[in-house]
UniProtKB/TrEMBL annotation:
Official protein name in the record: Interleukin 34
Annotated signal peptide: 1-24
Keyword Signal annotated: yes
Superkingdom of the source species: Eukaryota
GO cellular component assignments: extracellular space
Assigned keywords, A-Z: Signal
GO molecular function: macrophage colony-stimulating factor receptor binding
Pfam families registered for this protein in UniProt: IL34
GO biological process: macrophage migration; microglia development; positive regulation of cell population proliferation; positive regulation of macrophage differentiation; positive regulation of monocyte differentiation
KW Signal (keyword) present: yes
Length: 225
């Protein structure tokens, strides 16, 4: 007689225990550095596009093209994928992206100070991210799909096959950084408590989907220029 209700209580308790983990994946301390980063990102059109030659693109790992659509694909593929794992991946990917953009900028390029500041703010956010989680979190084994991506990203460049490289404009890469940041750290950017809005590939983009897919295969993304 007692057991079923105990089970029920246990179930409820389980739900309560689980809920905070699922909902609050972003510590509040992350929001200050991310908003600072967001302030810089608002000038990206000028510094990542106008200051570059038309159709300028840089060579990146194909895994460094990390968009909203990748996030939804990964969530579908890996059951119960922890948001924290995606956040770690976001830092790993974009650290490489920013480094690559800086590397192509000559010392006196007008976008250099901006990009250096962007990278500094990004690293500040990463520092807070690392410190706001227990160290064990970063030693946890990653789901296989994610580990594979991680391994590719950290592979020695000369061991990466030619076919694995892509070309992308600095602006499109930084756009990806920005859009995926809103999705993965939505608690810092949403006033409505809904991550869905930020994680959804926007309607205007859906309309251009076939074009985008075609463009992805090409060296540059003319729609972004
Ligand atoms: C992030 O930056 C955009 C402008 O690029 C701004 O509209 C938005 O309010 C900012 N969000 C936060 C939470 O600061
Ligand atoms: C930029 O790329 C588009 C599409 O590939 C091409 O039509 C255009 O001529 C290019 N512009 C320049 C200046 O190279
Ligand atoms: C995102 O998707 C594109 C195209 O499907 C793919 O080339 C890229 O490797 C994916 N990025 C990640 C981080 O998985």
């Amino acid at each position: 007689m007692v057991q079923p209700s105990l089970c029920f209580l246990g179930g409820l308790l389980g739900l309560f225990l689980m809920a905070p983990i699922v909902v609050a994946s972003t510590p509040a301390s992350m929001c200050t550095p991310l908003k600072t980063l967001n302030d810089s990102l608002s000038h990206r059109r000028r510094y990542m596009k106008h200051n570059f030659p038309i159709n300028y693109s840089i060579r990146v790992h194909h895994e460094e093209i990390f968009k909203l659509s990748n996030i939804s694909k990964m969530k579908l593929k890996v059951e119960g994928l922890d948001e924290l794992v995606l956040q770690r991946l976001w830092f790993q990917v974009n650290q490489g992206v920013l480094k690559k953009i800086i590397r192509v900028l000559p010392e006196r390029h007008p976008s250099r100070p901006y990009t250096a500041e962007l990278e500094r703010r990004f690293r500040d956010a990463e520092g807070v991210f690392v410190h706001s989680h227990p160290a064990e979190v970063f030693q946890q084994e990653l789901p296989e799909t994610i580990q594979d991506i991680w391994d590719q990203l950290t592979e020695e460049p000369d061991r990466v096959p030619e076919s694995s490289w892509r070309f992308a404009s600095p602006k499109s890469l930084v756009d990806n950084l920005c859009h995926t940041m809103y999705c993965l750290f939505w608690e810092c950017f949403s006033s409505t408590e809904a991550s869905q809005d930020y994680c959804e590939v926007s309607h205007s983009k859906k309309g251009r989907k076939t074009l985008n897919q075609k463009v992805e295969m090409e060296p540059t993304e003319p729609t972004e220029w």
